[in-house]
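User: Is it possible to get a 3D structure for a protein together with its bound compound? The compound here is NAP. I've pasted both below.
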Amino acid sequence: MRQIVTTRNGGVEVLKVQEAPDPQPRKGEVVVQVKAAGLNFAEILARQGLYPDGPKKPCVMGYEVAGVVEAVGEGADQDLLGKPVVAMTRFGGQAEKVAVPADQIFEKPESLSFEQAAALPVNYLTAYALLVVMGSLKADESVLIHNAGGGVGLAALDIGKKIGATTYGTASPGKHEFLRERGLDHPIDYRNQDWLPVLQQLTNDRGVELVIDPIGGSHWKKSYAALRHTGRLGMFGVSAASANGLKGKFKLIKAVLQMPKFSPLGLLKKSRGVFGLNLGHLWHEPKKVTAWMQVILDGVNEGWVRPFVDKAFSFEQVGDAHKYLEERKNLGKVVLVP
Ligand SMILES: NC(=O)c1ccc[n+]([C@@H]2O[C@H](COP(=O)([O-])OP(=O)(O)OC[C@H]3O[C@@H](n4cnc5c(N)ncnc54)[C@H](OP(=O)(O)O)[C@@H]3O)[C@@H](O)[C@H]2O)c1
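Assistant: Yes, that's possible. Here is the predicted structure of the complex:
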């Protein structure tokens, strides 16, 4: 089979399509023939050497796939053979075939293409954990979604709309019209102006009840300042560090040094909350994650979960796919197809 190997830290030239032996299912596993694999920002950071959770290189990345079960190991349900599924993969997904524990696969919703289904797990589980599980967003509240036009951003918008909350979102200006069409109440251009005064003006200086922030560093301080009393800040990424080579390392150190140090007394005085989320550290909580995934799959059938695939790149075009995200061109999801 062919797989996308990140051979070492570096620019997109370190990504190679290579042959490897087909995986065999171990006990409790199935092998999925991959029709589409999700590309996530974590893989950009991992290629750059800035993602501590990434596997040791050379490695095959990929947290999610959609495809067809082509082999079933001992102890797994034999009826799965031939079923179209969506799967969470702990790396290895960006390949023609991947072996996955059977409790990490879900029936693919019939209404979705394989490409759309591959856009579900990471984006929607992250957004669900941020808005619903940890952020406790309510209908009479408001949420600020940073990078609202990205993969997690669009998923968060779907969930925020379903809850009935007022939605604010930062995004590059070229994405605003699309975001309005998707239901975002207040798009904010954060590339050409400071977004905080704009948000304050839009909220009559009150701020919002929830901010979800994947940018990190000093940006978390600013997002904290955007909270209304009883507001919560969800921190879940450090895309501020993204760059190749030494520049990336320096940006990461800068981001770490500039992170806010929240004081319990300060939180108490302002009735605010802060929390972090790392979906990649929840593999030991399969029951929770499965329950969230079930809500998301039900949401597909109910029509409020609308995975949006901007572009599908072939495995050979993986460098272009990475660049597309790095150059902020993507609207929603980018997938890789064998
Ligand atoms: N903790 C977790 O469990 C978890 C899970 C999934 C994702 N994440 C994090 O969430 C963020 C979004 O992930 P995603 O996969 O959905 O990607 P994404 O948002 O689709 O990523 C690309 C978009 O991010 C925005 N962006 C902001 N700063 C950027 C930078 N320095 N370089 C390039 N683009 C930048 C750009 O949009 P605009 O400029 O138009 O806003 C760009 O189009 C990432 O930081 C990722 O690491 C965390």
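The pocket of NAP is lined by residues 40-42, 122-123, 126, 147, 149-153, 171-172, 175, 214-215, 236-237, 239-240, 242, 277-280, 325-326, 328, 330 (CB under 6 Å). Residues 112 and 300 are 8 Å apart (CA to CA).
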